[in-house]
């Protein structure tokens, strides 16, 4: 009898568990439950009622959690499009890599395409970046109006912030334009897009200059040019030619960490001779000075990302030359284009090497870095004068053939201009 009662109690216990599981499953769907044994002498209905309290509390808690999750899901969905748009934009604005190492031999590569691996862009990407620049342009116009009526520190700070954003966007757009140009054959509408973007960049640059002139009384020679990318369209040009010269001195401040080779800080071409006077560091070759296409290798070490002052002097008699870095003579030589005067009626270009008069630029020879205070004299400077220039002495002379002033230079293709004071802005 006792065994029979035990078996009956066990069957009743299993039946009660099945009832609770079935009832709970209807409320919560597929859920795992744990059954608890009921003493044989306790009323099963009473035990069920005692266990119903925690179940109801659990159900209420689950419903509250579900409501919270739904609210969070709605918030996430509202932000999803914004996140996707930002991610897509960032992925399309990858900066292109520096050019691949140039091949051995010669200073003038036969191939125009050594730009390395880059992500291939699309016309849609370029158009989107162009629209962004147009937006920045509108904001800049608003800033101009604000600055005219409120010449305050707040307006100047806002202008500086906007200039930084514009500079970042310039690098992205110019990188994408250069990438599209690398795709051969280039579509005609891509060229049109590039021209539009270049025009917008030039317009933005001139507007920034106008703003600076309106609020700044600094001297017109306290500026630097920045060439952030290797392109065949980013450069500056002197507004007038050089005269005939039987000797010269050329000095400049330079800062670059480009490799291999910083490129071409400046080139002077004349009719019939594209390499009349060129300073170039191409590939793994040392920096060279070219006069009438004759070459002298210069003992400069400059691609460390720091500012350096360079000076080269030359006389047509015996082709004597001297090279100075940071006020110290680093080398000299002779027989560099002896008895050949530098010819007049040419074009002086900063940042590009000319294959034709005023053009024929090759991106692999473009200068990458910063450049300032390029001055040219039609005489050989003394060691003391060169030292004064390198140390920013007040007695340092300005170039009598070409002097570093804003009115003497035109900027093209997105090269940028920033305030610079020698010896105060170093490194």
UniProtKB/TrEMBL annotation:
PROSITE patterns reported for this sequence: PTX_1, PTX_2
SMART domains: PTX
Keyword Coiled coil included in the entry's annotation: yes
Region listing for Disordered, in residue ranges: 93-121
UniProt entry keywords in alphabetical sequence: Calcium, Coiled coil, Disulfide bond, Glycoprotein, Metal-binding, Signal
Signal peptide residues on this chain, from the entry's feature table: 1-25
Keyword set includes Phosphoprotein: no
Listed cofactors: Ca(2+)
Pentraxin (PTX) domain sequence ranges: 221-423
Transmembrane segments: none
GO molecular function ontology, one term from the record: metal ion binding
InterPro entries, A to Z: ConA-like_dom_sf, Neuronal_Pentraxin_Related, Pentaxin_CS, PTX_dom
Coiled-coil stretches noted in the UniProt entry, renumbered to this chain: 126-172
UniProt-recorded name of the protein: Neuronal pentraxin-1-like
Lineage of source species: Eukaryota, Metazoa, Chordata, Craniata, Vertebrata
Name of the coding gene: LOC115015345
